[in-house]
Design a protein that fits this description.
The complex is a heterodimer of chains A (about 110) and B (about 260). Chain A is α+β, with helices and mostly antiparallel strands and about 110 residues long. Chain A has a single domain, classed as Immunoglobulins (Immunoglobulin-like, Sandwich). Chain A is built from 1 helix and 7 strands, in the order H-E-E-E-E-E-E-E. Chain B has one domain. In chain B, the strands form 4 sheets. In chain B, strands 2, 5, 6, 9, 10, 11, 13, 16, 17, 19 and 22 form an 11-stranded mixed beta sheet that branches. In chain B, strands 1, 3, 4, 7 and 8 form a 5-stranded antiparallel beta sheet that branches. In chain B, strands 12, 14, 15 and 18 form a 4-stranded antiparallel beta sheet that branches. Chain B contains 1 helix and 22 strands. Chain B is mainly beta. The N terminus of chain B is likely disordered. In chain B, a hairpin with a 2-residue loop joins strand 5 and strand 6. Helices cover about 5% and strands about 50% of the residues of chain B. The chains are: A alpha+beta (about 110), B mainly beta (about 260).
Chain lengths: ~110, ~260
């Protein structure tokens, strides 16, 4: 009887841990943000809790979906590059486990410097 | 005679609950995504939220935003405007501004108003109001204090709330928790997404009241979509002069959150 109780408690514990995992996965949502200063695009990637996305792959597309350049974020989640083209730019970040997001940097932002 | 005295007593007892004053900051959006416009409009008012009554509001003493641990003074961006409820014959001053979001993260907007003289209560009222706007997926900063004389620190992330969610906060006075603080809660009937104006069936429905625990922590579940105001009142340890007489000052810690129906 006691053994059965212990097994049941163990099973409930495992179930609880299982329920925790989806929340943990959600917290891994990646984000990317970019701004322009003096002809340089500064991209920042981060998780919702502020941790940087290190070694995230960043691809930059123009408004014709042509890949202009790509690179990898550093340990602080940062990546920078010269403005490759005066156009609406889409930055796509891909982190480990297929987590992906994008940011649209409108060409109007180039004039707000 | 005894009956009349009893009725008068009841009226006096109920009066403060019926007309709860709330300092208010309402932004045009509480979650700014990359697909949204980045310019927020913020309205700063002194009102009875459920009854939609406006009170005249002088230009605040402080108005700003806290973002990434840095405060930005926005006081001089405020423009005076006029508003009133449908049953008010005159209009009253409130304040409005636009603010452009430039960075990801949480923006806590705060206001410290000019003391409001309330003759009915024979005191001044100063409500320090706050509201948080999240931008671009970075969810940090919402639990940071602004450093106001009294303020509510959210313990529930104050955005992305569904109707029915519990909002938990802690009441601070000079940075210290206020044990068993009384917190008044009102629904903003003029919420832009309120599809049906609420007509409370009796006075206690206008202002909800909860008490905090010994650590100043309180909770309330919000039953309707729109904006909800939480207000914890204390008496200041300073006074102000009115017509030559020293008068008490009621200081309020006010926090606003928005809920959305789950659909």
């Amino acid at each position: 009887m006691m053994l059965q109780k212990i097994r049941l408690t163990g099973l409930l514990c495992l179930l609880s841990v299982g329920l925790l995992f989806p929340a943990s996965a959600l917290a891994h949502k990646v984000n990317v943000f970019a701004y322009v200063e003096a002809g340089i695009v500064y991209a920042e990637s981060y998780f919702p809790d502020g941790r940087p996305v290190a070694k995230g792959k960043i691809q930059v597309f123009d408004d014709q979906q042509q890949l202009l350049l790509e690179g990898v974020t550093d340990a602080a989640g940062l990546f920078q590059f010269k403005v490759p083209k005066v156009a609406d730019l889409t930055l796509v970040i891909t982190a480990s486990m297929g987590h992906k997001n994008h940011f649209l940097l409108k060409r109007s932002a180039f004039n707000e410097e | 005679m005894r009956f009349i005295v009893l009725c008068l007593g009841l009226l006096l007892f109920l009066a403060p609950a019926v007309d709860a004053h709330f300092g208010t900051i309402i932004p045009s959006d509480d979650i700014v995504t990359q697909d949204d416009g980045k310019t927020l409009t913020l309205q700063v008012k002194f009102i009875h939220p459920m009854e939609r009554h406006y009170m005249e509001m002088a230009k605040p003493q402080q108005f700003g935003a806290l973002h990434s641990g840095r405060k930005t003074d926005l006081l001089e961006t405020l423009q005076a405007s006029k508003g009133s409820s449908p049953d008010q014959l005159e209009t009253f001053t409130f304040w409005i501004t636009d603010y452009k979001i430039r960075r990801p993260g949480d923006y806590t907007f705060f206001v410290a108003p000019t003391p409001y003289w309330e003759p009915a209560e024979d005191l001044f009222i100063v409500h320090y109001a706050k509201v948080c706007v999240n931008a671009l997926g970075l969810e940090t900063g919402w639990d940071q204090p602004v450093g106001l004389e009294t303020e509510i620190i959210p313990m529930t992330r104050p955005y992305g709330l569904w109707t029915g969610n519990l909002f938990t906060g802690q009441v601070l006075l000079k940075g210290q928790p206020v044990p068993f603080a009384e917190v008044e809660i009102e629904y903003l009937n003029e919420s832009a997404d309120n599809i049906s104006i609420i007509h409370p069936p009796s006075d206690p429905f206008v202002t909800q009241v909860v008490k905090a625990d010994s650590n100043g922590v309180f909770s309330y579940a919000m039953p309707k979509s729109g904006w909800w105001g939480f207000s914890a009142l204390s008496e200041a340890d300073w006074t102000l002069k009115h017509e030559g007489e020293e008068k008490n000052v009621e200081i309020g810690a006010v926090y606003w959150v928005h809920t959305r129906d789950m659909r």
